[in-house]
Amino acid sequence: MIDKDFEIIVIGSGLAGLASALTAVERGCREVLVVEAEGVLGGSTRLCGGVVMGSRSRLQTAAGIEDAEDDMFKEYMAINVWDVSAGPVERWAARSGETIDWLQDNGVPFYERLIYSGDDRRPRGHCVEGGGQAIVDALVARCREVGVEFALGNRVDELIYTDGRVTGVRSGGEDLTAEAVIVATGGFGANPEYLAQHYPIAWVPGETFYIGSQGARGDHLKFSTQVDAQLTGENRGLRMLNPGVDTMHEAFLPGWTVLLDKRGHRFCDETAPYGILDSLLKARDNVGYVVFDDAALRPPADLADRYADAYKQVWPNHAKFKPKHYTADVIEQYKDHERIHIAESLDALAESIGIPADDLCGTIARYNHLVETGEDTDFGKAGRFLNPISTAPFYAVEVRPTAIAHTGYGMRIDDHARVIGVDGNLIEGLYAAGECTGGIVGPTYSGSGSSLASAAGIGRMAGEAAADYMKAARA
Ligand SMILES: Cc1cc2nc3c(=O)[nH]c(=O)nc-3n(C[C@H](O)[C@H](O)[C@H](O)COP(=O)(O)OP(=O)(O)OC[C@H]3O[C@@H](n4cnc5c(N)ncnc54)[C@H](O)[C@@H]3O)c2cc1C
User: Fold this and answer.
1) N or C: which end of the chain has fewer CB within 10 A?
2) Nearest ligand 1 atom to alpha carbon 434
């Protein structure tokens, strides 16, 4: 006799949860419940930019972009120096194009034009019209159509775990049982205690802030302790550069800036993707100085066009990127802040920051020389972003990677999203997908769209595997 409340319970209603619930129904389940702690569906997914990475989707093919079978996997492994769980990553990457098609078939509206997600060799970023909210709206509508139930405002406190098997969830003192449970609770960016413990390189008390949803409290870490699940991915995630004056989040640097390390040396193309800037700062004591001059803040009329086009990133689903902190008004507002340095000469600027003047002035002199030649032969920044740093006053903004967009410490899974125990065995009846998994994000966040791609792709893998397990259990 079947005496379970549901066939499958999914904890969390972000992309990972919605994709797994819908897939479980497609795979033959009839009684699927999504339990959501917050009063609103969608988690961080609903707040996100809506770029989804994928290789060999119908849209990519239609755009005439050729992508080889395992190039995405190989590039992902290379950028992460193989320090991820290659099994699940390979299966997820291989199906990433098919997952974009699946999202599209389920009503997610994509633009035809793809973008470069990060440091990839060919465009793989699929942009959703309407951003993350449009993904949530489409999948929730589809889930409701096929009979998935939702329980809003119910935070799961613990898993029901008996005789080595997960058979349900406990929320507010109530037990709900199921053949299988999928954990899709997102990350822990909204939990300062967990940030300090598990993402210490991102944690600066009084400065670090999270840009996602308040539901990201890291409950998967509690569940893991309860069932002895393996955890992996300490100190992984995505951090964006932050001047520390407010909690306004800024994804990219304007192309007319120069980014210096503590020695006053330049070290990259300043228009690099945010995941790359995060890693570069990690290798430089997590401190950088964004240097520019007054012409950038108040360009003369004849040069206005040169400064207006300041971003490499042009996304069809996003308004033209514009500086947020690096504007005359914001600099004026925070001019007395200890992280904002303003000086009439480069020597004085160096002194204000505490960098030897020879180093800073030498770096800027070389940069200005490259500007004159029109070619950044040192770091390869595109010529159209090269503007001299020569009009006083000069500015240096101290930035640290303390704006958190993603956390990567979580449950270790196999290539079917089954959770692995500390004893090396699979935990029966337990699956995980999305930001609550570990070992998917490596030392470098590979680019815009990789989180949503893994939430959707691994969410589908979890839905399939949990449905198969449920059917076998009831056979
Ligand atoms: C501003 C911003 C922009 C971003 N842009 C992009 C982008 O363009 N492309 C990209 O790939 N990534 C992007 N990301 C990252 C990406 O949005 C997330 O990694 C992804 O949405 C996570 O999906 P998820 O389903 O794992 O978690 P979430 O979407 O966070 O969903 C988890 C859900 O679980 C719920 N929950 C948690 N604990 C419990 C519990 N105990 N009981 C019940 N429910 C619970 C939460 O309330 C939440 O609703 C962005 C992130 C942010 C913050």
Assistant:
1) N
2) 26
Q: Of 351, 378, 403, which residue constitutes the final position of a domain?
A: 403
Cα of 213 vs centre of ligand 1, distance in Å, is 7
Neighbours of 57 (CB within 10 A): 26
Per-residue pLDDT tens over the stretch 376-399: 999 999 999 999 999 999 999 999
Contact of 35 with 65, CB cutoff 8 Å: no
Domain count, the chain: 2
**Closest of 402, 406, 47, 396 to residue 246, by C-alpha:** 402
Instruction: Answer positive or negative: Cα dihedral of 340, 343, 346, 347.
Output: negative
Q: Are 438 and 149 in contact (CB under 8 A)?
A: no
At 218-266, the pLDDT tens digits run 999 999 999 999 999 999 999 999 999 999 999 999 999 999 999 999 9
Instruction: Out of 355, 387, 403, pick the residue that ends a domain.
Output: 403
Mean pLDDT score, 272-283 = 97
Supply 208's token pair: 């670090």
Whether residues 327 and 442 fall in one domain:
no
Q: Which amino acid is it at 124?
A: R
- 40's tokens: 């609103």
CA distance 325 to 172: 43
Pairing of strands 174-183, 426-432: parallel
Asked whether 259 lines ligand 1 (CB < 6 A), one says no
Distances in whole angstroms, Cα of residue 53 to Cα of each of 74, 101, 405, 435, 454 = 14, 12, 17, 15, 9
Measured from the CB, is residue 219 less than 6 Å from ligand 1? yes
Tokens of 357: 């003047």
Q: Which helix (H) or strand (E) holds 222?
A: helix 219-227
